[in-house]
Structure formats: C-alpha cells, structure tokens
Amino acid sequence: MTLPALFIAHGAPDLPLSTTPARAFTQDLGKRFPGVRAILVISAHWEARLPTIGTAAAPPTIHDFGGFDDRLYSMAYPARTSAAVVAEVADALKAAGIAFAEDARRGYDHGVWIPLMLAFPRADVPVVQLSLRHGASAAENVALGKALAPLRDKGVLIVGSGAIVHNLRAIAREGTPAPDWAKAVDDYIVTAVEAGDEASLLRVLDTQGGRIAHPTPEHLMPLFVALGAGGGSGHAIHRSFTWGSISMTSFAFGEEKKAA
C-alpha cells in the first residue's frame, strides 16, 4: 500500500495539554495509518546547511521553547530511529542528486515530538528526522519531497511539520477568533492545494498576506516537501486556528479525499 504524505500543523508546544479541536484531530491521526513501518519528519524547527538526516539510535527529546507549562519540560518521546530507513532516505537523496549530511547527535525538536506523542503515543514506530536546507526556496523543497516520494511505497509515512499561518507577533489568547488576514491566507492555501495549483502555492510568500503570515518562511516550507512527496494532489484533513492566528490546517497528499 502506498502511504500518503502529510503536512501537519504542530501548533504551540502546549498542544498536548490543550482541549482544542486540533488536539483531538492530532490524537486521532495515528488511527488512520495502522501498520506504518516508520515515520520520516521534516520539521520547521531544524534547518541546516544541507538537508541533514538525524542518525542517532535513540534521539533525545529537545525542549526547544520557553515560558510554557512546567509539565511540558518533563515530557519525553522515546521513539528510536531506524538504520534501515536512514539508509533508504540517503539512497533516495543520492538518486535525486541532492547533497546531504548526517547528524548522529541531533534529537527530536518539538515539531516532531509534540504531534507524534499524540498521534503515536506508544512511540513504537521508528522516527527519522530530516532537516530543511536553510535558505532553500519553495520549489527546491518540492524537489526534495519528490526525491523522498519512493519511500511511501516502503511503508514510510512522510510528515512535514509546520504551520501555513505562523506570525508569533500576532498571537492572542486561546479562543480568540482568527483575524481576517489569517483566515484569508489559510483559505488561499487550502484552495490552491485542493485545486492542485502549485504555481499559486509557490507564490504565496510573494503576496502581502503571505508576508504577514510568515515573517520568516521556515514554517511554510514543510508544506512544499509534503506536496512534492505526495505528487501534488492534496486535500485538507483538518482546519482550525489556535492562539488566535496560528493555523492548525493540515493536509494529506496522494490519497483519496476523505471527510475532514
């Protein structure tokens, strides 16, 4: 069975403690994919000079945030990596002519462990993390995703982890309605994804709304990796906002559309 590629909004680090619709969605997500062999995550929170594969056998949990509930800092996600899947990722990148590096010390940042501890709480599925290349364009990240696409036929669930609207200067108290500009960008991206309009997606950071939604681009870039890995055909599997303006919209690429 060919697995889809996913783009998942990981939200704020307090997602596991929240009672939001996004938490309920993420908690149910793993049930869609029983028997997954491994998970490959491309998180907004790891950028490097080259796409870099985390190769540590038991990556530590990185608490790469401050100012949140003390309970979050004692949480850990004890998943292990897989040498076989690391080799398959490396082979896929080599086959596409993409230069890469490896990091034997890197742990799982919160873009990895926050959503996975909800979706796959037993931590019994191997998890491999691949960094973004710092400064890579949207089109280059689509190409990275295309290089990884063959892994979907090998039982590997490819997950881009970020947010399609992510301006921390515009956050508000949880439960505050999303501002109009945030909803407009969210709608623009959902419409483009579901129409297969890659050209409009590649231009989103050139629009006024896109620049407001992304003062820095790293949280949007995992979307392009998922789009490339999934073959460009996608649909929203969840839509909501948290902290006012942070989009929790998530997508599946390369699967038959189901009810969100």
From TrEMBL:
Residue stretches spanning the membrane: none
The protein's required cofactors: Zn(2+)
Keywords assigned: Dioxygenase, Metal-binding, Oxidoreductase, Zinc
Keyword Metal-binding found: yes
Residues in Extradiol ring-cleavage dioxygenase class III enzyme subunit B domain copies: 35-252
Cross-referenced SUPFAM superfamilies: LigB-like
GO function terms (MF aspect): ferrous iron binding; oxidoreductase activity, acting on single donors with incorporation of molecular oxygen, incorporation of two atoms of oxygen; zinc ion binding
UniProt keyword Nucleotide-binding, yes or no: no
Top-level lineage group: Bacteria
Assigned protein family: Belongs to the DODA-type extradiol aromatic ring-opening dioxygenase family.
Protein name per its UniProtKB record: Dioxygenase
Source organism of this protein record: Aestuariivirga litoralis
